[in-house]
Design a protein that fits this description.
single chain; about 450 residues; mainly alpha; three-stranded antiparallel sheet; 13 helices; about 10% strand
Length: about 450
């Protein structure tokens, strides 16, 4: 009785994963194993260092932004913004600071740092950068990326980006991140020496894996859908906020007309003049206060935008898993094909149409020596393929465990941050309404004294 060829689909089923909530698969275990294997993961330039735990003990700030003019890679004149990064140790010895350092970085250097982190830590939800150009802003606020108000908000966002990395249990240990904070001169060369660009997955390959993977992990599929919905919801929320801000700006500024009319009216009244003049002053103050209010609102909007961009970071983890699953499936399919070829050569039975079968019919059978040589070669390839498939299975399991540990960490951070941001926004709206009530209360008192 002939034995059926191995089913490729069976090769694709990894061993059952242990529950994510078990003690040895939680975030602590993932971080511990990551730290233990850190020195073995990289070749060439060591991307991790055990001496970087002090990053948790320093203060990191992006304290200034400066407009500069220089030449780009094309030797063309350009204007850009540089940001001053300051690091200061919170530990002191004999009253002296252990570390005080400062250097300037361009936005493109922040982008290079994040690109490197995405390649070397594909299982981590890497913190996003603030927007390069303003989006979802109320129309009175400049969308120019060189506008001082926008540059200031981006400065705060870049500082938050560095603090996110420094507080991450794995990313904070990275040597390239440490050099980003301390090495001004040849930092770009050091990054390029890691060869991270060669390890980056192409977009075409990622797109191909998305549509051709046969057995996607439902958890990652659901996570990708969630990230899409999160991005959509926050985008709508930001658009609504911008429309409300536009209308609010108009309402407040129209109150300035009250001030002008009351002032003109007071000029022709003797007994009511003082009361009208005072009421007009309160209206002018009320009208001018909207500028500061909406600028404060933009900071809360930036907190929401961070999670708008975090959605793409979640999708990046999902894409990497799809690529790994696709490679696993291709390896399993190739192994099954070689096993079938080996069986056909051994039994002399051809199960499916093949070019080799047609060649045999046209030009005759192979000699026993040729067939034995081919069988031996296939057996070697099968052994190699089995080892490769086993390695890919183990790599996939490790990726899933580490990725879900970091995703759980991200979820806790997201819930905490968005809750705080929305509460602060509500408190600010309540405060704004109270100020409006106070203005009209003052105006009422002015009218009462007339």
């Amino acid at each position: 009785m002939e034995q059926a060829p191995p089913d490729p689909e069976r090769q694709l089923q990894p061993a059952p994963l242990e529950p994510l909530g078990s003690p040895d698969t939680g975030l602590g275990a993932a971080v511990g194993k990551e730290a233990e294997g850190a020195g073995e993961e990289s070749s060439g330039v060591d991307t991790m260092t055990h001496n970087n735990f002090w990053l948790k003990k320093i203060e990191i700030s992006v304290s200034e932004a400066e407009k500069r003019t220089g030449r780009n890679a094309m030797n063309m004149q350009e204007t850009y913004t540089a940001y001053l990064i300051e690091t200061r140790s919170v530990e002191h010895t004999d009253g002296q600071s252990v570390l005080t350092d400062s250097l300037w970085r361009r936005y493109s250097e922040f982008e290079l740092l994040r690109s490197y982190l995405l390649v070397y830590y594909p299982h981590i939800v890497v913190p996003p950068l603030p927007e390069k150009r303003a989006e979802f802003v109320w129309h009175k606020l400049s969308a120019d990326n060189m506008d001082p108000d926008f540059v200031e908000r981006r400065r705060i966002g870049l500082e938050n980006f560095l603090l996110r990395i420094a507080s991450h249990p794995i990313l904070c240990r990275d040597k390239i991140f440490y050099l980003f904070l301390t090495q001004e001169g040849n930092w770009k060369d050091t990054v390029n020496e890691t060869g991270f660009q060669l390890k980056a997955d192409s977009r075409l390959k990622a797109l191909n894996a998305t549509f051709r993977v046969k057995n996607p992990d439902k958890r990652f599929t659901d996570l990708k859908h969630y990230s899409d919905e999160l991005q959509s919801v926050i985008s709508h929320l930001l658009r609504v906020r911008a429309r409300v801000a536009d209308r609010l700006y108009g309402v407040y500024k129209v109150h300035g007309n009250y001030g002008r009319v009351f002032s003109e009216w007071s000029a022709i009244e003797k007994e009511m003049g003082d009361g009208l003049q005072s009421a007009g002053h309160h209206m002018d103050v009320y009208a001018s206060s909207i500028d500061d209010i909406l600028e404060d609102e933009e900071h809360y909007a930036d907190q929401l935008k961070e999670y708008l961009f975090y959605a793409e970071a979640l999708r990046a983890v999902c894409r990497k898993h799809e690529l790994m699953q696709y490679d696993l499936e291709m390896a399993a399919q190739d192994l099954a094909s070689k096993k079938q070829q080996c069986e056909e050569l051994a039994t002399g039975t051809v199960r499916t149409f093949s070019l080799k079968g047609m060649t045999t019919k046209l030009f005759g059978q192979e000699t026993p020596e040729q067939r034995e040589a081919r069988i031996k070669m296939l057996e070697e390839q099968i052994n190699e393929g089995e080892q490769q498939l086993k390695s890919k299975n183990l790599e996939g399991r490790e990726f899933v465990k580490n990725a879900w540990a970091d995703i759980e960490r991200f979820k806790e951070q997201k819930n905490r941050d968005l809750k705080e941001a929305l509460i602060s926004y509500a408190v600010m709206q309540i405060s704004m309404c109270k100020k409006g009530i106070q203005v009209w209360t003052n105006a009422k008192e002015c009218f009462s004294k007339m």
